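Archive entry. Fields below.
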Amino acid sequence: MINDKNSKKIVDIIQDFSRRHSLFVLAYGTGCGAIEIPPTMTSRYDAERFGIRGMATPRQADLLLITGYLASKTLKRVIRAYEQMQDPKYVIGFGSCTINGGMYWDSYNTIKILSDYIPVDVYINGCMPRPEAVITGFIELQNLIKEGKANGAQKYKENLEWYRENQKKVIKDWKMPDYNW
Amino acid sequence: MNIWITILGFLATVFLAFVVGVFYGGFVRKITARVQNRVGPPVYQNFLDIVKLYSKKTAINHGWMQHLGPAFAITASVTSLMFIPILNGTGWFPWFENLNFKGDLIFLLYMMVFGSLGMALGAGQTGNPNSAIGVSRGLSQMVGYEIPWVLALVALMLQTKTTSLTGLLDYQVSNGTWMMFESPFAFVAAVLAMLGMFHYAPFDVPFAPAELSSGPASEFGGKYLALMMSSGSIFSFVKLVLIVDVFMGGASNLIMLVVKTFALYMIPVLYGIVSPRYRTEQSIRYFWGWPTFIGILGVIYAVFVR
Amino acid sequence: MTDTILDKEQKLVQLLEQTFKKLSGKVVRQRRVTVSVEKELVPSVLSYAKSQLGYIHLSHMSCVDWPENNNFEIIYILWSPADKVQLFIKTLINRENPEIDNVDMIWKHANTYEREIREMYGIQFNGLVGAQEFILEDWDDMPPMRRDFDTVEYVDDNYTFRPGREDAGDVREEIVKRSGEDIPDFAKKYSRD
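PREDICTED_STRUCTURE:
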């Protein structure tokens, strides 16, 4: 039983519990969605009661929150921030701009589908999603972690060539360091 | 056989300091939330954070000093803890008093700075500009609050004619009084210096998440951050117990210890919740103003009045 | 009645037309005057307006593309705090070889506007110092604010669309079809049909 790799050990249970109830968020305030984060964190909606806490640097965070549209220029920074984060890491795409381009569907310098470039675990629909929707997204992510389905980072590592190809299509002058995470 | 009891007592002390410190952190988050009219995280939230951070992968390498920095911090915390008598009599846990080495206040003053210096070296090697700014801010602020703190302790040493922590405790127990009544100026100066020592607002200058992205810790994630958080929890317990020992007559049992330290802890916490952040020079000017003056008064009081 | 109100505007146009021969001015309305000049005259008109007439503030600097006339139109918007008049100075430059003199020695912040116009319209400012890349990074196509730049075509070439989102069409029908629910009443009044 102990040596069975598929069985969940008590350590795994504690780990999973603490992972899903302690999400350190790096809010990448690109678009209009950044303005929805303060009400989510402050007294009215208070996301801290779910253990969600803002963090200032990608090194400390486990959840990257892409709040709104991403210009191809900011995509570069997002990829760097994402690759600097430590495993296990998750991404939440926020608003319809990250899903299908939203109102920037014909803009020449915003990307249309975020999950082509970095793996997204949960999308929150809306333009903009209200704090209730944001908290629902967080809880959805917690459920995914519980079921072991929030494996975006795994996907990114396995399909790195595919992601790199897509990224290089947008970022033409590729001068990025290679991280050995 | 005796040495095994000492080692057991050592482990129990560290465990106690860790648990109490982390729970205090949870209480602080809860109290902050209640003051801001929020529900707040559960009290055990900091445990979850630390467990999660310990279970994260850590693949950052900036050089060996970066790996040693958090280790220095936790070494300093645990070492300072070892030199502080947790309880003054034979209390609920008889090992605790046997453990301390009849610690010396001057030695402790040096030991408590060691962790910050280690962190400064570690943060310096990460090469992150925010870390460098945070370190320089933190060290300048330390220059600020160390002065009233040292003045308060010097006043105590002059008054009781001893530099030993156990000597101070014995003095208070045998005279049946607390140093905060014997030497009130020194106590006020020490409490004001303590505001800076805990790095809560308005003295959270070195961390300043809005401008420095958490300062010295900005390049430390995963296990290093967990080490730093554990070290911070233990160290806040150390500072509280030290002030309780030297000013409030120590504690005869664990319940009294928790009551006294918690009451003392609420001073910087509650002052911090309602305050915005100082700039570096404002914070240094604050410490070199009234706290230093009261500290000098305390020394004069100890020399001439007593 | 109107004559007395537009007094200072007309005086401004007269003054400018007397000073510069190849200049035509027009009073648009109260507090707004438009002046068209040739591109060689732009620096002298701007410095004259700044030093002699009290138009000390460059509010904005903009560009309009006119592919119909094969022209770019550069517009400098000046403001006089004393007169409280907005002075629009417009100049036309050829679209084939677009270049104009740089004016950031008159107003330093014109540099930022000029760099943006250079990047977005591909207009060369003679003597302009500053990094070539301003907002766009690694841009190798036609300057994107020109009117003959086809945004949708560029987006088709460079990005992939999520199916169902190839245009700005109404997605309510699709949602109704997939979910089997009716369009709610409050949404019907916003329908584009």
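CURATOR_NOTE: Helices of chain A lie at 10-21, 37-41, 72-84, 96-100, 131-147, 152-158, 160-170.
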